[in-house]
Every structure is written in C-alpha cells, then in structure tokens.
Write a sequence for this structure.
C-alpha cells in the first residue's frame, strides 16, 4: 500500500514544522512548503534522516499559479493528496494604529486566501 501524502503550507517553522514531523512519524510522505527555503529544506532533510519520506517545495500561498503548480507536481509524482494542512500565516507585530491597509490586505492574502489557493486545486 502506498504511503499517504500530506501537503503542509508554512511547514518550515513553528506549528507547521511540528505538524510535518508528526505526520512523518505517523508514516505519511510529507510535502513541506514554505517561502522560507532553508527552513523548509531543513524540515524535509530531518524527516528523511529519520527514515521518513519528505520533500520541500517553495510556495508563496499568495501566488495562485505557484499553488496550482505545487499541487499538480505533487499529484504527478506521488498520486492522491490525502491531507492538506493550510498552516501558512503571518502576523504584523505593530500597534493597530500603525497597521496600514496594505499590511492588512497582505495578511488576508496569506492567512485566508492562501488556504483557498491550496485547497481548491487539491480537492479534485
């Protein structure tokens, strides 16, 4: 039986990293995605070093074409995606009065619309 496949956005650090390691420990092939290339590669390397299956793909979830390409590439190489963890997120650590419209819009692009951009192509 083929390994189940999980795609994790924002998998290079924090909750995404911990989630990637947990899924690897459960026997999944983990596709770590992030805009942080060094961190994402390090997570995939750590999983492989422990005998698991993993690879890293650069993904900026604000880019629909990139999201579509990562999902298509993953399905082409590994087959069905069993789980998508849409974890990518950002936080602007500024007082509300200093939050610009552009920063607020960028937060929505990553934290909300990023989920849609990754889940949409994976559903079929």
């Amino acid at each position: 039986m083929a390994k189940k496949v999980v795609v994790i956005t924002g998998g290079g650090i924090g909750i995404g990293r911990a989630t990637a390691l947990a899924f690897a420990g459960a026997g999944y092939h983990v596709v770590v995605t992030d805009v942080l290339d060094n961190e994402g590669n390090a997570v995939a390397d750590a999983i492989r070093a422990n005998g698991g299956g993993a690879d890293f793909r650069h993904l900026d979830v604000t880019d629909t074409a990139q999201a579509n390409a990562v999902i298509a590439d993953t399905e082409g190489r590994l087959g069905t995606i069993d789980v998508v963890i849409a974890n990518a997120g950002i936080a602007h650590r500024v007082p509300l009065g200093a939050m610009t419209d552009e920063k607020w819009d960028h937060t929505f692009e990553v934290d909300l619309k990023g989920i849609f951009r990754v889940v949409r192509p994976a559903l079929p």
Notes: The helical segments are 14-25, 37-49, 64-78, 101-111, 113-122.
